[in-house]
Design goal:
The protein is of the alpha/beta class. The chain has helices spanning about 15-20, 25-35, 65-70, 120-130, 160-170, 185-190, 215-220, 235-240, 240-250, 265-270, 285-290, 315-325, 345-365, and strands spanning about 10-15, 35-40, 55, 75-80, 100-105, 110, 115, 180, 200-205, 225-230, 255-260, 305-310, 330-335. It starts with 8 loop residues before the first strand and ends with a helix. It catalyses: 2-hydroxyoctadecanoyl-CoA = heptadecanal + formyl-CoA.
């Protein structure tokens, strides 16, 4: 049996495992085989990041150096529900060797270079779990996932920069919350962010559509789970009217708006001086007031809590402490950030995509 020849096994869970209700079966497979586990950004939150076999987020060049080294040094990679879109692969910077990768999909299975149609992971994975040879099971005793320490620029000791924000934010997100991250800096910010236990992450990694997060937060509302919306100023301007719905339906949603003065992700892609990536500045933190907070209404409204602008780390932490204490209220935190500051994962993805397109162009010339 070929699998007996391999020394190190790695399992990557991508996106379709959750989409097809497979996570229970996947977890049983993980615990049966004792394999180290890596998630891609699209699957973030599908497994408790404190699970002893969880080892980190893999997205090509966007991964930490230790994650890249371990994945690329694997003898065999088992990929469940692969979705190799640009954002999910760090700008197409995956370098997984097909010679040592087995892919499980819903309508086919691919073993190295051979494709087996109609071999469905929903049926195959439970069979593989049941028949996994006991003599190749090794108790996993590797190092658990550790978030690499953040190195903050000494020039920005009080300002709210991305490296600080995504390191600090998990301290204020309770277990079992729902985090809706908008396409752009928010989406990339959560890639390597520590995930509190039981948190569900909703992102638009596949299509990269902007403006969905504010409305999606309403769909994700659950009386027993707090919803946090992470949205940029540009995306917010597309769907700001949903704040009215949040007030009307008595939600306790937490809106964290990143005000970096325009479409930052587009500025990185198309250079910062393109006029169409600049937008009208708004008083975002006054959104509750504009959409009727304090006016006489024909039905009960949400109770509003913090609604203001924060420019320093001290102000941010004070506002978020209020959010933690006032769980029955809806909050709006406008976080003022530097215009061309961005998460490292976003910068690396854009660089990777440029290199990929350059190679494609050269191949066609």
């Amino acid at each position: 049996m070929r699998i007996r020849c391999f020394l190190i096994y790695f399992l990557l869970i991508i996106s379709c495992a959750t989409r097809h209700g497979m996570m229970g079966k996947v977890l049983r497979f993980i615990e049966r085989t004792q394999l180290p586990v890596y998630l891609t950004p699209m699957a973030k939150g599908d497994i408790d990041e404190r699970h002893p076999q969880f080892h980190g987020i893999f997205a090509g060049n966007c991964s930490t150096e230790s994650v890249q080294k371990e994945v690329y040094n694997a003898d065999l990679i088992l990929s469940v529900g692969s979705m190799n879109s640009d954002f999910n692969t760090g700008g197409f910077t995956y370098r997984l060797s097909q010679k040592k990768t087995i892919e499980f999909h819903t309508y086919h299975t691919k073993i190295f270079y051979a494709v087996y149609d109609k071999v469905d992971m929903r049926e195959l994975l439970p069979d593989l779990t049941e028949h996994w040879p006991t003599n190749i099971i090794r108790q996993y005793n590797g190092t658990q996932n550790n978030i690499e320490p953040v190195i903050l620029d000494a020039k920005h000791q009080t300002e709210i920069v991305h490296e600080y924000l995504w390191h600090k934010l998990p301290d204020f997100i309770p277990e079992d919350s729902i985090v809706v991250a908008e396409t752009g800096t928010s989406e990339f910010g959560i890639f390597n962010m520590r995930a509190p236990k039981g948190v569900t992450f909703l992102t638009q990694i596949l299509w990269g559509s902007i403006g969905y997060s504010v409305g999606a937060a309403l769909v994700g509302k659950d009386d027993n789970r707090r919803v946090f919306v992470l949205v940029g100023d540009g995306s917010f301007q597309l769907v700001c009217q949903e704040i009215s719905s949040m007030l009307r339906f008595k939600t306790n949603i937490v809106i964290i708006l990143l005000n970096n003065d325009g479409y930052t992700i587009e500025k990185f892609i198309h250079e910062p001086d393109r006029a169409y990536n600049n937008i009208q500045m708004w008083r975002y933190h006054n959104s509750f007031e504009y959409f009727g907070d304090g006016l006489k209404q024909n039905r009960d409204q949400a109770i509003t809590g913090f609604a203001g602008q924060v420019k320093t780390r001290e102000e941010f932490e004070k506002a978020m402490a209020q959010v933690l204490n006032e769980t029955e209220k809806i909050h709006f935190i406008e976080v003022v950030m530097l215009a061309m500051d961005a998460p490292k994962s976003l910068v690396l993805t854009i660089e990777g995509t440029r290199e990929y397109k350059k190679r494609e162009q050269e191949e066609h010339e």
